[in-house]
Amino acid sequence: MQIHELPTISGSPSGGYFATDNGTQTTKIDYTALAQAIIEQYNASTLAGSAQSVKAALDGLVQKSLPTEIAPRTTIASNDDLNTYTTAGIYRCATATIAASLSNCPISNVGFNLDVVQLYNVAFAYQRITASSGTTSSAVVEVYERFINVRDSMYGTWKKVPTRAEIDGILKPYKVGGSASDVDDCNSLPRNSIGYTYANALNSPDAGYQIFTYGINDSNKVQLALRGTVNPKIKTRLLTGGDWSAWVEYAKQAEVDALDARVSALENA
After folding, report:
1. CA proximity to 128, closest of 140, 146, 111
2. Are 139 and 132 in contact (CB under 8 A)?
3. Counting runs of H as helices and runs of E as strands, what totals does the chain give?
4. In the chain, which residues have pLDDT < 70?
5. Cβ neighbours of residue 188 closer than 8 Å, sequence gap 6 or more
6. Which end of the chain has fewer CB within 10 Å, C or N?
7. Which residues, other chains included, contact 102 with Cβ-Cβ below 8 Å and sequence gap of 6+?
8. Chain centroid to CA 114: how far?
């Protein structure tokens, strides 16, 4: 396509065209096609100023290719060994049957995606498996990861990345607050738990107590129960040799002071 000097363009672009006055007749010019023709006709060295920089930028975009990490997925075949997947890329295990046949794979009951990222001049690799138990919004997603020393052929152990719910389940007995549903039996509280309110749990001293567990040695521990701020009550019990003692309530300081006063009054009578 040859580009010639165009007559003055009149009006504004409309419907993808410029309307031009070409002497005795009006000509419609497709300015999208015209721009493409200019790009094809000229290279960056023949353009000047801003046009030259635009052309260079366009050429740079065309020349760039997608990085390996986001390239189309490669299929993982049956009986493959995931230790051999150290080249950067995205790999797909299509079915649970294929997953069950793989070597050095942490899951066998579902298909998955395997992401491989090369690190430190390809001397090391990071593998990440993402699997889902279903296709609905309520499906559980599981993630496993490991590092590989490619240079020395050393393969890390697959570790499951815990979900938020799993972390909460682990930390639950160690948090302040909560409700009776968090534990069924105060006897099952782990050592060094920080305290929970168990309104209806088994072996609780009473409703509304916060219970703190302290380890004494490998087999014994003490539980301290606190309730109320205006009229506090304190109870303790001891686990010895696998058996819990009964809860013992401690006297309030005001009660101790009142008792001391009565003793003093009797002694001075």
Report:
1. 146
2. yes
3. 5, 16
4. 1-32, 34-73, 168-184, 194-200, 218, 228-231, 254-255, 269
5. none
6. C
7. 76, 78, 79, 80, 81, 82, 93, 108
8. 17
pTM (2 d.p.)? 0.44
Q: Where are the domains of the chain?
A: 9-63, 68-161, 168-253
Residues 6+ apart with CB under 8 A from 209: 197, 198, 225, 226, 227, 233, 235
User: What is the model's pLDDT at position 159?
Assistant: 93
Euclidean distance between CA atoms 151 and 74, whole angstroms: 23
223 burial level (CB within 10 Å; 0-12, 13-18, 19+):
buried
At 21 the pLDDT is: 52
The CA distance from 70 to 191, in Å, is 47
Q: In terms of residues, how long is the chain?
A: 269
State how far the alpha carbon of 228 is from the alpha carbons of 63, 148, 186, 224, in Å: 72, 54, 19, 14
pLDDT of residue 69: 43
Phi, psi for residue 56 in degrees, rounded to 5 = -65, -40
Distance of CA 63 to the CA centre of its chain: 35
**DSSP assigned state of 160:** E
Distance of CA 186 to the CA centre of its chain: 32
Cα maximum dimension of the chain: 133
